[in-house]
Amino acid sequence: xxxxxxxSEKGKKSxxxxxxxxxxxxxxxxxxxxxxxxxxxxxxxxxxxxxxRATLCAPGGGSSGDSQLVGGxxxxxxxxxxxxxxxxxxxxxxxxxxxxxxxxESQMNPKxxxxxxxxxxxxxxxKNGRWAELQxxxxxxxxxxxxxxxxxxxxxxxxxxxxxxxxxALQAAGDVEAATxxxxxxxxxxxxxxxxxxxxYAQNAMRFAGQAPNAAGTPVTTTTQGCTSGGGIGTVDGFxxxxxxxxxxxxxxxxxxxxxxxxxxxxHDYNAADIGAPTGTVVVAAKGGVVEHLREGKDxxxxxxxxxxxxxYYAHMNGSIKARKGDKVAAGQPLGQVGTAADNDANAPPHLxxxxxxxxxxxxxxxxxxxCNAYTFINIQPPLIKAFQALPE
Length: 393
Prior knowledge:
single chain, alpha+beta, Lysozyme, Glucose Permease (Domain IIA), 2 domains, six-stranded antiparallel sheet, three-stranded antiparallel sheet, 10 helices, 13 strands, 29% helix, 13% strand, disordered N terminus
């Protein structure tokens, strides 16, 4: 006689539960880890807090394996963004404060989308809020490109209330930690910001200060209004060419022709260099140091006591000085832009004047032409030429 085994209701439930758990465990490796929206997010900022477990989706969907970072990888995107903000005139520690926040939000991936479809891009803008505003603002530009998203951040910080409180807050920040708080409290406003992580990311971003925009010398081009910011930065033996540009721009300039193949100066009675470049070309520090002198307004100029104890003087800028007396600047950091003319000579083509004095000089003498022969100036043509050769074509 066949025996029939009976299973109690409790037993059936136990078996069913074990079966469900087994299936879930088996399938888990095949499923992307999902992002969780922080329920405590600040409700008025339209930005979601990034969860590192988020699916990295390409536009239109796809798994993390489908995602490609625009511009390379996290390291390169982080570096490009750092130089984007210093190119806008922010001091390195203030740019680093922004980077620390964006790293916490998205790991600098412009394609990251939360699994629920809410948070988008490097700042994790909400889909139906500020992300929609980005789409309208961008027009025909690629909304998934790193440059587009960086430009939108700058647009909001410059023009759109209340986010336009961010730049003044950053300018008041005296160190990396303060800058990180300034950006988070005025732009991100996360409910649970995890400031410890943001500050660590920001401090880590300071490693880019003093470096060229990228190791390969590939130009980092932005779309700064009123500023010729395309091109790259060339650095050789710790000396940076004082313009963010391309070799072809300098060689083809029809105004003041810099003697790029001559080991001594060709424009002055004393050691100095005049480098012709279009108005708006970004002027950068040849050496790191401390700002000891500046004059704003027409024919703006700036003097920096370098880390090498030499005194660096940059002149014929257009009132666009991006530093203040006492600021510490890094080599390659933007100082301003090439102006429209030199001194009061309206007929002088736009160019950068740079001269360097050895110690114990701590300020530039008030001299010009042959009168400057009474003072000692360093021949900077050799390091200028070397650094020039490191610029992109």
